[in-house]
């Protein structure tokens, strides 16, 4: 459902295949993050995905009314985590989780997380044109 | 997750038949791969040719399977499409998994 919506918007905007894949992945990761962490996997809760766009940028907001993101996680989301700095030859060092937010941080051009009156809001932006042409 | 299985000598080829490997199916996906390993398979090719989307949960399930196999066997991937291969590059998992163009290539490498 989320993928179909995001892919539809990206197609409408003429986004490249790479951009579309990135935005789809990040939208899914953000919603999954809200389900797993804000709502601890408990069904029946509301998650709102807001999509705003111009021909130059695509803004996605994922809103939930669940648990807030822990401060240390907020810090990692703002500045980057080391989750992908593993030793490829050391099986024990490989992550099996905790990758979603770092994927969003790396793949999108702008990201933020904030606690607002309406709930927790993860915002992310993809610029659809090369920055030099903006 | 559904798989189509075939065997070439001692190599098990499991072709993923669902197009998406995401959080909703990742636990079951991981459990089924673990079952292959528990059954004693030590050379497994997971063919992703039919997969169009994978997220970090799916990736985590694959990492868990690689760990379960350990250094005593081979758990390799084949057929990853551009969007799927891109997720492996982004997360540096392309440095971890042996990935082949086709299942036949993977089988040849393991045989």
What are the SSEs and their pairings?
The complex is a heterodimer of chains A (134) and B (111).
Chain A: H1 2-13, H2 17-38, E1 47-53, E2 57-64, H3 71-79, H4 100-107, E3 110-116, E4 119-127
Chain B: E1 3-8, E2 11-16, E3 20-21, H1 26-38, E4 43-47, E5 53-54, H2 56-69, E6 74-78, H3 82-90, E7 99-100, H4 103-110
Parallel strand pairs in B: 2-4, 3-5, 4-6, 6-7
Antiparallel strand pairs in B: 1-2
Helix pairs in contact in B: 1-2
* Overall outline of chain A: globular
Percent in strands of chain B: 25-35%
Percent of residues in helices of chain B? 25-40%
CATH topology of chain B, which one?
A: Transcription Regulator spoIIAA
Distance between the termini of chain A: 31 Å
Radius of gyration of chain B: 12 Å
Structural class of chain A, by secondary structure, is: alpha+beta
Order of helices and strands of chain A: HHEEHHEE
Oligomer: heterodimer
Query: Count the strands of chain B?
Result: 7
* Assigned CATH class of chain B: Alpha Beta
General form of chain B? globular
Name of the CATH superfamily of chain A? Histidine kinase-like ATPase, C-terminal domain
Mean pLDDT of chain A: 94
């Amino acid at each position: 459902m989320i993928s179909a919506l995001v892919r539809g918007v990206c197609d409408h905007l003429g986004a490249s295949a790479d951009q579309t894949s990135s935005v789809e992945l990040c939208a899914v990761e953000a919603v999954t993050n809200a389900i797993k962490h804000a709502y601890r996997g408990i069904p029946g809760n509301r998650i709102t995905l807001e999509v705003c766009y111009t021909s130059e940028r695509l803004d996605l907001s994922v809103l939930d009314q669940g648990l807030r993101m822990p401060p240390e996680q907020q810090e990692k989301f703002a500045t980057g985590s080391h989750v992908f700095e593993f030793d490829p030859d050391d099986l024990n060092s490989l992550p099996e989780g905790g990758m979603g937010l770092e994927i969003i941080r790396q793949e999108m051009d702008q990201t933020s997380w904030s606690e607002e009156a309406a709930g927790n809001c993860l915002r992310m932006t993809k610029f659809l044109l090369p920055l030099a042409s903006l | 997750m559904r798989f189509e299985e075939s065997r070439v000598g001692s190599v098990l080829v499991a072709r993923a038949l669902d197009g998406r490997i995401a959080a909703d199916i990742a636990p079951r996906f991981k459990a089924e791969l673990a079952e292959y390993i528990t059954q004693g398979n030590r050379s497994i090719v997971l063919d992703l040719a039919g997969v169009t989307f994978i997220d970090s949960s799916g990736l985590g399930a694959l990492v868990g399977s690689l760990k379960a196999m350990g250094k005593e066997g081979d758990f390799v991937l084949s057929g990853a499409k551009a969007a799927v291969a891109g997720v492996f590059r982004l997360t540096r998992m392309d440095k971890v998994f042996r990935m082949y163009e086709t299942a036949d290539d993977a089988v040849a490498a393991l045989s």
